[in-house]
Design a protein that fits this description.
Number of domains: 1
Organism: Microbacterium salsuginis
Low-confidence stretches: none
CATH topology: Uracil-DNA Glycosylase, subunit E
Number of helices: 8
Protein name: Type-4 uracil-DNA glycosylase
Pfam family, one: UDG
CATH superfamily: Uracil-DNA glycosylase-like domain
Number of strands: 7
Mean pLDDT: 97
CATH class: Alpha Beta
Family: Belongs to the uracil-DNA glycosylase (UDG) superfamily. Type 4 (UDGa) family.
Strand content: 15-25%
Distance between the termini: 38 Å
Radius of gyration: 16 Å
Shape: globular
Bound molecules: uracil, iron/sulfur cluster
InterPro entries: UDG_Type-4/5, Ura-DNA_glyco_family4, Uracil-DNA_glycosylase-like, Uracil-DNA_glycosylase-like_sf
Strand order of the largest sheet: 2-1-5-7-6
Structural class: alpha/beta
Order of helices and strands: HEHHEEEHEHHEEHH
Amino acid sequence: RPGAQEWVPDTGGIGELREAVQGCRGCELWRDATQAVFGEGGEGARIMLVGEQPGDKEDRAGEPFIGPAGRILDQALEAAGIDRSEVYVTNAVKHFRFEERGKRRIHRRPDVGHIEACGPWLDAELDRVDASVLVCLGATAGRAVLGRPVKISAERGVVQAFGRRSVTVTVHPSAILRIRERDPREFAFEEFVRDLGVARDAVR
Ligand code: URA
Ligand code: SF4
């Protein structure tokens, strides 16, 4: 795979990057997706949240975390006392990867090759957004940010030094949605809120 580097502008801000990403051909995922979904938030955001890839709703709307996972994320941010305006929200991979089953589009996890191909866009966001804390939502984000395999259960909720920034990893909000029984789901939500609180307290 060629990777995204040749499509990433060297100059300009998040707005320029968001325009340029629509032309990216750094891997094959652009072919079936509706559009690329770039990160959202101010360049002065103190916290950057990194998800996996856009879902079905995000692919259609062009905005990150507006579907069911986004609803959980919003609730958890509020419970953790984090204002959505303080955060920059993005994904490790900018195009939706899916499988068609009848009329439904079923999410497929990106491969390491997709994460690596799309890495230059995340690097460019890290370059433009001045956040002091990065929060990886799930293993794909952990892999993308830290550049190594990450086991969420072993590393969640602690602050790791990462250059001049801090990194924390936690679960992906979709993992909470997949829990069928109410009590375990609520417990998982509370743990997620606690991890976001760790990130909030690490902001400089
Ligand atoms: N899941 C993600 O990881 N990102 C989104 O934007 C939506 C769902
Ligand atoms: Fe480019 Fe990333 Fe989309 Fe692949 S997923 S085409 S690297 S923006």
